[in-house]
Amino acid sequence: MNDILPTDNISSAQPFMNLANIGLLILFIASVAACVFIFWKIAHKTGLPGFLSLGMFIPVLNIFLIAIFALITWPIEKELAEYRKKYGPLIKQEKPEFDDLPICAKCQTPIPPGAKNCVNCGWPDKYKDIV
Known about the structure:
The longest helix is centred in the first third of the chain and has 38 residues, at 8-45. Residues 126-131 have low confidence and may be disordered. It contains 3 helices and 2 strands; from the N terminus they run H-H-H-E-E. By secondary structure, the chain is mainly alpha-helical. It has a two-stranded antiparallel sheet.
């Protein structure tokens, strides 16, 4: 009966199995550390304590934590609301004010109205108009 199952092959493969298990253990620890780091940063950006990131590894609690992170008002949203309350909404200009100005032929700088020479290089009256 002992001749059917050779034990020499199993014992020779044992060191490689240990290396594979160690490699998987290192990969598992690295991925857990990366998840903790990422969730810690998200919790910190929401204004909540970073240790809540450890709750991501507890079943059912992780779903509630994701919902909390998604639904609370983040500090950047509060700052933006205060800015808009103080300065009004951000207005997007459709056309910059210097689009219709003539441009210096030498340095390509817009020439302000009433100027006869380029304000950048002083090139006299030799600028082309933008059409």
